[in-house]
Write a structure and sequence with these properties.
The structure holds three protein chains of three kinds. By secondary structure, chain A is of the alpha/beta class. In chain A, 35% of the residues lie in helices and 27% in strands. Chain A has a single domain, classed as 3-Layer(aba) Sandwich (Rossmann fold). Chain A is built from ten helices and ten strands. Chain A is globular, with a radius of gyration of 18 Å. Chain B is globular. Chain B has a two-stranded antiparallel sheet with strand order 1-2. Chain B is built from 23 helices and two strands. Chain C has two domains: 130 residues, 3-Layer(aba) Sandwich (D-Maltodextrin-Binding Protein, domain 2), CATH 3.40.190; 147 residues, D-Maltodextrin-Binding Protein, domain 2. In chain C, 34% of the residues lie in helices and 22% in strands. Chain C contains eleven helices and 13 strands. In chain C, helix 6 packs across helix 8. The chains are: A alpha/beta, B mainly alpha, C alpha/beta. Chains in contact: A-B, B-C. Chains B and C meet through loops of B and helix 1, strand 3, strand 4, helix 3 and helix 8 of C.
């Protein structure tokens, strides 16, 4: 019987110094320093292929899955060096992720949400019931789904599936949630609902969101980082970035000269 | 969480171990083939062995003294080649046209029926085909043959029907994969349906159709039981359509039981030659299809075309046009489709009509207890033997096969040398004819367990045969599970083992279960691997795995051969067909059901 | 127009070919047993053309030569031969005397019919002993030894001479012994108090001896009141397979059957009875009722291809 592990001292801030990443010979991320604040929404913007998603995946070590990927630099979450002697599963429990395309497991809604908690030892039915309800409420889906918990998650619409994935990520009570273009495949109404969610979640969770949509960044994020060709060109409060960018490249991107 | 870490380590080691076991199986078979055949090749002389046409073995020949027997297999090489060519001419041509019929000229309602019928044909055991050949085809041919019907023609017909399903299903897949745009383009230019089909779509599917023919060749080359029953088996050249001749596989199975030292080596060497042929066919096919792809990929200027070549092509093109070739093609397709459908109905119908009357009301045949020294036949022991064999062989092959597939797909780095070795090993295993497995099993497992046949030896032998299918199918199923699911699970903090067992495997389940059910069907219908490893006599119901026994297919072979109990033979054939078909249908149903469950709204 | 023409040509060819085949007298279907068969060995070693050529022999270089025609069809068991001959008007085959029934017609050889008297006095030439073999060196299990004793005893006489089995029991110690061996007396046997120990006795060998073996096994089992399938496991893959099993026996539980004399020194053996190899043809065959050994040689070596050629 697995014991429920005690909370590890993962904080809610992310601090990166001198991050470099190579895919084989390709230098994908160049010397990035960044401080991501706790309980706020931070957006990464920039044109395609500039490293935003790659950088995001460093925070929960999903890049470990890619063959030939080499990372240097210091990544601290709270006081913990996540590339040090940290248990990677524990890390991922605390740093949740929502992917671009919704990826619910081919199980029932209930099972999807219960998957995370079960992984970490929670077996009792009452406990799981409670967590499922909490998570679905947290994703504003409880009323919609409370009568179809046993049905397959694959029968939901795209927007519902994505919110289910958010609920699923919430079920393990992460300190930080990473979102990799979570609404790019969704219709405007679902997008709106998810943006509302981010607003609510940030009171308890740190959110880092990669987005192609600059308007989305202005709508929901507190801080924004602009990435170009593997470099973090500019980083600051969202208002400042969009009204008064310091770097010429930032300005050209924001005004739509390239993209 | 050290608990998880430990689990991960154990899991990884287990999967790697399974992959290593597969390699060991291949190495064992190859070692066996080499160790037993090289001395024979040496003693007899490779050229003498391969091109000598006198096969008169002396059981007493040993490696220490000069040989008194002759060991030349050339007549059998010719026999195998002739039978395979015959099978291709019949099965390949009819299969090709049937596939065309099925895809382009078949009315919708008939299509599903015909497709199912063809799948069923694939499931009929070889022994049943042989039996059908003996009781129906031979007497029919005897009407206008100078002998009793035995010979090349009978063999080609039976083999041709046996490779039909393979050729049809693969050709069909290729034809259906041709982009609709080709067809539409031709029709838009004014071509009729028939012209568009034969002039644009069919040529586009050429490589797939060729692949299906190659697979058909492989099947025909390795076929043993059906051929043994209708070919006559005299070590002579097949100089006419109707004389007794022997193929390489028959040579092995007929002399295996009592072969002396050198003779045994010569039989293994026969297996090696057979394997070499199969290998050759695959290599040639690879080269040909590569060239075809390369040629079509070259820019038009670079392709060499001689003027003579162009003229010849024009000439034949003209004739084809005048003869309205596409329409002859259509007629051929319709005829082929009818033939195939009727062939199955006929084979199965004939046996059912003859066998069911002896099944009904003869409860003793199926459920009776074996009477020692009694005169009535009961196949109940055979049923039990079959079930025991299926259980043990699956118990061995499924875990090893599934774990190897997991290793290959989930753990190994692509392109890793070890991975390539394991994949190569699996491919080799799938090309080895079943009779060679039988030989291997007889010389290793049987000897290992005290020298007498046992269900254990037979099960071990056949479980190696099942490995390639299970590994391949599982791998395909695992591949079809989207990576995003794996990422989703890992991102939630689950370890790899949990991801595999809770997310990946359940999604791949339908494919795996289908593979298992098809493997069950394979075990039930095989006989060559069991003849000398498990025993061939129906005796008392076996009590343990060390007992010998005969499976249903082997029992049918014996009953058919003896001739004393022909009615019981028919009844046994009915039971066998029903069992195999039930397994095949079950496989399809399970696959469909699970797929629905995964994608639909079911609980 | 062209299509009709082509079709017509095709139809004509088929009809012509078909009718051309129908009327001809067919070749003899020469049915032989497989090479591991004791029956075949016995037959091949006797059938000769009179000039020193036998169907199975060693040629002038000491090499093995099988003279049976390459057109022959090899069958696996006695029953198989009978079925083939019984279903084919042009067939000829050979089977054990004990297997004869009215599905096939017996042919006399050199004017002699295969019956008990003619076999015993040697005038029916195609005869062979039924041989019981065990490993020469290994010690038999108590159970196997007891059964061997049974097989050597006079209990076998009733089994051998029953209508079912129909072979000729040998009681003369000299005749029971293999050539060159010491004479083998008929043993005394009575069943012990209980079935002796040992694993299952493996009975392996000639299919011609199947009936005799089954009768013996049944009798032995009945004497102990035990179900025969608990005592024996049987396989009839041919005399050569039986010989091989006996030679390779390491556990002392193999009792093998051969329907032809064996010279191997790795086995101990004795002849339990005599059997004849009867030549059979189809019931409807009116052309053949007696054949000389020379004619049999010509037929089996392929020199004579049709029954009408027998002058």
């Amino acid at each position: 019987m697995k014991k429920v592990k005690e909370e590890l001292p993962f904080g809610q801030t992310i601090s990166v110094k001198g991050a470099n990443l190579w895919y084989g010979d390709f230098h994908a991320l160049k010397n990035i320093d960044i401080e991501i604040p706790e309980r706020a929404v931070t957006a990464f913007i920039g044109p395609s292929g500039c490293g935003k998603s790659t950088f995001l995946k460093c925070f929960n070590r999903m890049n470990d899955l890619v063959a030939g990927c080499k990372i240097t630099g210091k990544f601290m979450i709270g006081d913990v060096d996540i590339y040090g002697k940290t248990d990677v599963n524990e890390l991922r429990k605390n740093v949740g992720m929502v992917f671009q395309k919704p990826n619910p497991f081919p199980m029932s809604v209930y099972e999807n949400i219960a998957y995370g908690p079960r992984t970490f030892g929670i077996r009792k039915r009452e406990q799981l019931d409670r967590i499922v309800e909490e998570s679905l409420r947290g994703a504003a889906m409880w009323d919609e789904l409370k009568d179809r918990l046993g049905k397959s998650a694959l029968g939901l619409s795209g927007g519902q599936q994505q919110r289910l994935c958010i609920a699923r990520a919430l079920a393990v009570k992460p300190k930080i949630i990473l979102m990799d273009e979570p609404t790019s495949a969704l219709d405007p109404i679902s997008t709106g609902k998810i943006e509302e969610l981010c607003d609510e979640l940030k009171t308890s969770t740190t959110i880092v969101i990669v987005t192609h949509n600059m308007q989305q960044a202005t709508r929901i994020s507190d801080k924004t980082g602009f990435f170009l060709l593997g470099e973090l060109v500019e980083y600051g409060d969202t208002e400042d970035i969009f009204s008064d960018p310091k770097d010429e490249r930032t300005e050209r991107y924001i005004t739509g000269r390239f993209g | 969480m050290t608990n998880t870490k430990v689990k991960e380590k154990i899991g990884r080691s287990a999967f790697t171990a399974a992959a290593i076991l597969c390699i060991i199986a291949v190495v064992a078979i190859f070692a066996f083939l080499i160790v037993k055949s090289v001395p024979a090749f040496g003693k007899i002389g490779i050229l003498q062995f391969m091109f000598g046409d006198n096969w008169s073995p002396d059981r007493l020949d040993s490696y220490e003294s000069p040989l008194s027997g002759y060991y030349g297999i050339f007549t059998m090489i010719v026999g195998t080649v002739a039978a395979t060519v015959g099978a291709l001419l019949i099965g390949g041509v009819i299969g090709y046209f049937t596939a065309v019929f099925l895809v382009f000229f078949c009315p919708e309602k008939l299509k599903r029926v015909l497709a199912s019928v063809i799948n069923l044909l694939a499931g009929i055991p070889s022994v049943v085909y042989g039996f059908f050949g003996v009781v129906f085809l031979l007497p029919l041919l005897a009407l206008f043959a100078p002998n009793n019907g035995t010979g090349l023609l009978a063999t080609s017909i039976i083999l041709g029907v046996m490779i039909l399903p393979t050729v049809v299903s693969l050709s069909r897949t290729s034809l259906e994969a041709v982009p609709r745009a080709y067809y539409e383009g031709a029709v838009a230019l004014g071509a009729t349906h028939t012209q568009a089909v034969f002039k644009t779509v069919v040529p586009a599917a050429r490589s797939g159709i060729t692949a299906s023919l190659v697979l058909g060749i492989g099947r025909a080359l390795g076929e043993t039981m059906a051929v043994v029953m209708v070919a006559g088996n005299s070590p002579a050249y097949p100089h006419s359509l109707f004389n007794s001749f022997r193929v390489l596989t028959a040579n092995i199975v007929m002399e295996m039981g009592y072969a002396g030292e050198v003779q045994e080596g010569a039989l293994v060497a026969t297996g090696v030659v057979l394997l070499f042929f199969i290998f050759l066919v695959n290599v040639v096919f690879g080269a040909v299809s590569n060239r075809a792809v390369k040629t079509s990929a070259k820019p038009k200027k670079e392709r060499k075309t001689s003027l003579a070549g162009v003229r010849i092509r024009e000439f034949f093109g003209n004739i084809a046009y005048k003869l309205k070739a596409p329409y002859i093609g259509r007629a051929a397709a319709i005829v082929a489709g009818c033939f195939t459908g009727l062939a199955l109905l006929f084979v199965v119908g004939f046996i059912f009509v003859k066998g069911v009357p002896h099944l009904i009301g003869n409860g003793y045949l199926v459920f009776g207890k074996f009477e020692f020294g009694g005169s009535r036949i009961t196949i109940f022991p055979a049923i039990v033997t079959t079930l025991m064999t299926v259980a043990l062989s699956l118990l061995i092959a499924v875990p090893i096969g599934v774990m190897t597939a997991i290793f290959l797909n989930e753990y190994a780095r692509k392109g890793n040398v070890f991975v390539r070795i394991v994949r190569g090993a699996i491919d080799v295993l799938s090309g080895v004819p079943s009779i060679v497995y039988g030989l291997f099993g007889m010389i290793t497992f049987v000897k290992l367990f005290g020298g007498s046949s046992s269900i254990l030896s037979g099960s071990l032998t056949v479980s190696i045969m099942l490995l390639p299918t299970i590994v391949r199918s599982t791998e395909e199923s695992l591949k079809s599970v989207a990576d995003s699911l794996r990422e989703g699970s890992l991102a939630l903090g689950a370890g790899k083992m949990r991801t595999i067992f809770k997310v990946v495997l359940p999604s791949a389940l339908s494919g795996i279960l289908s593979a298992i059910l098809l493997s069950m069907g394979r075990v039930v219908s095989e006989s060559a691997p069991f003849l000398y490893t498990m025993g061939s006599v129906i005796s008392a119901t076996p009590h343990s795995y060390t007992d010998s026994g005969a499976t249903l297919a082997v029992a049918l072979y014996r009953l058919a051969g003896e001739g004393w109990h022909i009615n019981e033979a028919y009844a046994t054939a009915v039971v066998l067909i029903v069992l195999v078909l039930a397994l095949n249908l079950l496989a399809e149903w399970v696959a469909a059901r699970l797929n629905k469950k995964l994608t639909g709204d079911k609980k | 127009m062209k299509k009709v023409f082509l079709r017509g040509v095709l139809a004509l060819t088929l009809t012509f070919g078909f009718s051309a085949c129908m009327g001809r007298e067919k070749n003899i279907s020469v049915i032989a047993r497989e090479k591991g068969s004791g029956t075949r060995e016995a037959f091949d070693k006797v059938i000769t053309d009179g000039n020193g050529n036998f169907l199975e022999m060693k040629d002038e270089n000491g090499k093995k030569a099988y003279k049976t025609t390459l057109e022959a069809i090899e069958k696996y068991t006695t029953g198989d031969v009978k079925t083939s001959v019984g279903n084919d008007k042009n067939a000829i085959g050979y089977v054990s005397l004990g297997a004869l029934d009215d599905t096939v017609k017996v042919v006399t050889v050199n004017g002699v019919a295969p019956n008990k008297e003619r076999v015993l006095d040697g005038s029916y030439a195609i005869q062979r002993p039924f041989v019981i073999m065990t490993n020469a060196t290994v010690t038999l299990t108590p159970r196997a030894a007891d059964f061997l004793n049974y097989l050597q005893s006079a209990e076998m006489q009733s089994h051998a001479e029953s209508a079912e089995v129909g072979c000729i029991y040998l009681s003369d110690p000299e005749k029971r012994a293999r050539e060159g061996d010491a004479p083998v007396e008929v043993a005394q046997w009575a069943n012990l108090d209980s079935l002796p120990d040992g694993e299952k006795i493996k009975i392996s060998g000639s299919s011609s001896m199947e009936k005799l073996a089954k009768a013996a096994m049944k009798g032995y089992a009945a004497a102990y009141g035990v179900d025969g399938s608990k005592i024996f496991s049987e396989d009839y893959q041919g005399s050569s397979v039986g010989l091989k099993d006996a030679e390779n026996d390491t556990s002392g539980n193999v009792i093998a059957l051969s329907s032809t004399a064996q010279t191997s020194t790795k086995i101990k053996c004795f002849n339990v009875c005599l059997d004849a190899v009867a030549v059979v043809v189809n019931q409807a065959n009116t052309l053949v009722s007696d054949l000389t050994i020379g004619q049999l040689y010509d037929i089996y070596s392929g020199k004579i291809k049709k029954f009408s050629e027998l002058a």
